[in-house]
Design goal:
With 455 residues, the chain is an alpha+beta fold. It has 14 helices and 13 strands. The strands form two sheets. Strands 1, 3, 4, 5, 6, 12 and 13 form a seven-stranded mixed beta sheet that branches. It has a six-stranded mixed beta sheet with strand order 7-2-11-10-9-8. The longest helix has 25 residues, at 250-274. Pfam families: Pol_BBD.
């Protein structure tokens, strides 16, 4: 017989149930009845103080009651509650032990309220068990009252507590996401929209979880994100009050106009590429290297990978909004443009410039407009940029895909370790082809969650 079974049998002799997360009210009523029976309840409630040494008989009786009360409380705790409440001080002081248990289970903190409220939602009713349903509901309503939840009509314009709803949502996550829940709980008080956004970030990052040789840094997704709302500016955000859209709604229109202009520019580039018939299929041409660098300095997130193979791999990435390459030697044309790069851990590296890089896939050659990030050892091809240029990713079978438009297939690849690995070669400039082959590094480093920002 295990220790919990022994404790249960000892507690049941006194009619006290084993305390768990779902029966605090019954346990409290039983333990207080036991205290009343042995004459210890007044000491627990603070109506009587411990007798002094001047009254040895009362002091001896008090110590006897203390040991009995402490022993019964300890025997009525399950394994989880023992770990929470028992220590050398509390196990010899039943009043301190009882107060700590009561404070925990009657706390009106949102996490405790969510626990009790979820127990109410979990009540079920089978056929011919209506009486049990009513009994369970009454018990759970008593639990709601014990943690400070008042049942009634909410204030105007509010139907449910934002913090309580956020706690309930987090509790829906299975044990598989304990790390995510721990990070979320460290950021109390919780807000529903912020919690949903954080879970969504976690899901997006899980699509690129580290497998075998692939290494990805995802801590940046778990950083606290601050928002401005309800017409007020939050000073914890990264923008100033003058740039706050809550205070200056006209900024929304300016951003919308800027995005429309950028979209029109991309459409013009696409049209030029479609009408080019004398050259191999190319998405970006020489004249795309304009002085307007906003086309290549848009906000983007990319992930580099780790490999020891030659040549370096090329990956199709759905979150990178610019094509990225780590070697200047591969650029057919090049324009220096220093930019600031922030990594996932908050450190910075640099983007040195941008230009055209020629690629070969199967029998076709084409040029893509890439930015030069020296720390990246694997080529990243932006699916979003290809999409804007009229290309789509088509699944051929379980492991293979094509990137094509209405004129045909541009490139293809396979899914390896949940990554889209492209069948793609970089074509070095002819005058430096041999030098490029010799100077390729064999050991590639890992760059994690790079975010390109304006300098």
């Amino acid at each position: 017989m295990g220790p919990e079974a022994l404790a249960g049998s000892a507690a049941q002799k006194n009619g006290i149930p084993i305390l768990s997360d779902n029966n605090y009210s019954e346990w409290d009523a039983s333990i207080r009845a036991f205290f009343l029976y042995i004459g210890f309840l007044d000491y627990v409630d603070g109506d009587l103080n411990a007798p002094s040494e001047a009254t040895p008989e009362l002091l001896m009786k008090y110590k006897e009651l203390t040991q009995k009360a402490a022993g019964v409380i300890c025997q009525s705790l399950d394994t989880n509650n023992r770990a929470k409440f028992l220590n050398k001080l509390k196990e010899k002081n039943p009043k301190v032990l009882y107060d700590s248990i009561t404070l925990y289970y009657q706390s009106n903190q949102s996490k405790n309220q969510a626990r009790v409220f979820c127990n109410l939602l979990a009540i079920s009713c089978k056929d011919k068990e209506v009486e049990n349903l009513i009994s369970n509901v009454r018990v759970q309503l008593m639990h709601l009252n014990s943690v400070g939840i008042k049942v009634g009509k909410p204030p105007a314009n509010i139907d449910i507590s934002n913090e309580l709803l956020a706690e309930i949502i987090v509790r829906k996550l299975s044990n598989r996401y304990d790390d995510l829940k721990r990070i979320i709980y460290e950021q109390r008080p919780l807000e529903t929209q912020r919690i949903v956004a954080k879970i969504d970030d976690y899901i997006r990052d899980s699509y690129n979880s580290p497998v075998d040789e692939i290494a990805i840094k995802s801590e940046s997704s778990y950083k606290i994100k601050h928002f401005c709302q309800n017409g007020t500016h939050n000073p914890m955000t990264k923008h100033s009050a003058n740039q706050c859209r809550q205070l200056h709604p006209e900024l929304k229109k300016q951003t919308r106009d800027k995005n429309n202009k950028k979209r029109n520019t991309n459409q013009q580039n696409q049209n030029r590429a479609k009408h080019t018939s004398q050259k191999p299929p190319s998405i970006f041409e020489e004249d795309d290297l304009s002085s307007d660098d906003t086309q290549v300095v848009n906000y983007s997130k990319a992930y580099a990978t780790k490999s020891n193979q030659y040549p370096t791999f090329s990956y199709l990435h759905t979150e990178a909004s610019s094509h990225m390459i780590g070697h200047q030697k591969f650029f057919q044309t090049y324009k220096k443009k220093p930019m600031s790069v922030e990594t996932a851990d908050g450190s910075h590296t640099s983007v040195l410039g941008h230009g055209l890089v020629e690629f070969k896939s199967n029998d076709s050659k084409f040029k893509l407009h890439c930015i030069h990030v020296p720390e990246i050892k694997e080529t990243l091809i932006s699916m979003g940029t290809l999409w804007d240029s009229g290309f789509s990713m088509i699944r051929r079978n379980h492991n293979h895909f094509d990137v094509k438009n209405n004129k045909g297939v541009l490139m293809n690849g396979k899914v390896c370790n949940n990554m889209f690995e492209l069948n793609l070669e970089i074509v070095p400039p002819k005058q430096s082809e041999l030098a490029c082959a010799r100077s390729l590094e064999k050991n590639c480093t890992t760059v994690q969650a790079i975010q390109v920002l304006k300098s």
